[in-house]
Design goal:
heterotrimer; A mainly alpha (about 120); B mainly alpha (about 110); C alpha+beta (about 240); B: about 110 residues; mainly alpha; 3 helical TM bundles of succinate and fumarate reductases; about 0% strand; C: about 240 residues; alpha+beta; Ubiquitin-like (UB roll); 5-stranded mixed sheet; elongated
Chain lengths: ~120, ~110, ~240
């Protein structure tokens, strides 16, 4: 169920995420050295426009990418198509975007109390 | 699921790409929810971060890194297959993507243990 | 070759339409024996009601493809010893196509998709015009030549999981022919082809599992042809032509 447009969206978001994922993995390998702590994570991200943009872009790209990927799998495995498949695609993309943006705001600009 | 006509290397590469994609998509909402605890419940957030000290959780993290790495390197291979001049080395490239993912996730794992 | 022989147990799919079951037969085993020989022996000497399809017996017509021990094969050029060893030989109708009876499938969906993919010649000249000169060394011609030996046997179609999961997917053979024509200097329908392979069942559904290229009996590479279509459609889209 991939038309040329969905295919291009899938590939463009993938290309966009390639450096972001590598960066994310790099940050994780760096961050876990000497153990994780909430204060350490938040100290890095709080108030940072850079990390907000980095992960904001990441969240939007992954929402589109995952929605199209899951849509393809759902169609191939269950045969679901038409309007229901469209609702599923949009629902996944919007749901992941909202949850993701909320998470990013939580660790950048809207953190409530650091322990 | 693995019938005889599905035993060739590139099919297995496909299966790995699809499985890792599904698992990552399932993991994302959980990941986002935990991070948003920083907004709603700072104590719970801190508690969860301490929960990652458990050995089992560290192993799961290593596995997640592997899934992420194998999805991105496998995906880059696919895009190279589609958009760059053709190369006959697809099996070797697929194996290379898996090897690289093992290396990356092992590097991560060695940092947390 | 005619000394008293051992027999081999063969399991053959019998039934009409969607219902059926495997039935076993004991067939004389020879050193040099193709899977099609085995099927023919059963039909000639054991059960004349067995339905199957073949024509040339030399790997040119593309009629005799079947699932042999779970893998799609051209049965006339598949030696039993090579695929079965000492094991049971299991022969079933081609996957991903509706069964008519026993080992004969209805190939209509397969060929209908060739037309849907615009894998048909779009003429650029009439019979009154000079014949176009096509140089064999031309880069485009080489791309067209790569897929030209397709015998329409549907082995790739049976090997493809994307076909199994997505009923609209045009499949490796039709897409490869579309790519061949796209690179044919005599074809006037390049834009038509790109549009035909960009829909809900188009080339972009391919997951590059490579079953097609793995099983193609003529060692063609439909996966590469489909990648070519993806590249051509991507380029056309970036130029605003799709």
């Amino acid at each position: 169920m991939l038309t040329l447009r969905l295919y291009m969206l899938q590939r463009i978001t993938a290309l966009l995420m390639a450096p972001l994922v590598l960066g994310h993995i790099g940050v994780m390998i760096y961050a876990v050295q000497g153990g994780l702590s909430a204060a350490e994570i938040l100290g890095r991200t709080q108030g940072s426009v850079f990390w907000f943009s980095f992960y904001g872009l990441f969240v939007l790209a992954v929402s589109v990418h995952a929605a199209i990927g899951l849509r393809t799998i759902l169609h191939e495995v269950t045969g679901l198509s038409g309007r229901l498949l469209m609702f599923f695609t949009w629902g996944t993309a919007l749901g992941l975007s909202v949850l993701g943006m909320r998470a990013i705001l939580a660790v950048t600009f809207l953190t409530r109390g650091v322990s | 699921m693995i019938r005889p006509h599905r035993r060739h290397p590139l099919f297995l590469a496909f299966l790995l790409h699809r499985t890792s994609g599904i698992l990552l998509a399932l993991f994302l909402p959980v990941h986002f929810w935990v991070l948003s605890l920083a907004l709603t419940d700072a104590a719970a957030f801190d508690g969860f971060i301490r929960f990652t000290d458990l050995a089992v959780v560290k192993l799961a993290e290593g596995l997640l890194i592997f899934l992420l790495a194998v999805h991105i390197f496998g995906g880059l291979r696919l895009m190279a297959l589609e958009w760059l001049p053709w190369t006959a080395m697809q099996k070797q490239l697929a194996a290379g993507a898996i090897a690289l993912s093992c290396f990356v996730s092992a590097t991560f794992f060695l940092q947390v243990i | 070759m005619n000394e008293p022989v051992k027999t081999r147990r063969v399991s053959i799919w019998r039934g009409e339409g969607e219902t059926g079951q495997f039935e076993t037969y004991d067939v004389p085993a020879y050193d040099n024996q193709t899977v099609l020989d085995v099927v023919s022996h059963i039909q000639h000497y054991i059960d004349p009601s067995l339905s199957y399809r073949f024509a040339c017996r030399v790997g040119m017509c593309g009629s005799c493809a079947m699932m042999v021990n779970g893998e799609p094969r051209w049965t006339c050029r598949t030696h039993v010893n090579k695929v079965a060893g000492q094991d049971v030989l299991e022969i079933a109708p081609l996957r991903n196509l509706p069964v008519i009876k026993d080992l004969a499938t209805n190939m209509d969906p397969f060929f209908d998709k060739w037309v849907k993919a615009e894998a048909v010649h779009h003429s650029s000249a009439s019979r009154d015009e000079e014949m176009m000169v096509v140089l064999p060394d031309d880069a485009e011609r080489k791309k067209a030549d790569a897929g030209i030996e397709c015998i329409n046997c549907a082995v790739c179609y049976a090997a493809c999981d994307t076909v199994a999961g997505n009923a609209d997917y045009l499949g490796p053979a039709a897409l490869q022919r579309a790519w061949t024509l796209y690179n044919d200097a005599r074809d006037a329908g390049k834009q038509t082809i790109l549009e035909a392979v960009s829909g809900a069942g188009g080339c972009h559904n391919c997951h590059a599992q490579g079953g097609c290229s793995h099983y193609c009996p003529n060692e063609l590479n439909p996966m590469q042809a489909i990648a070519g279509l993806k590249q051509a459609t991507t380029r056309a889209m970036l130029k605003g032509k799709l």
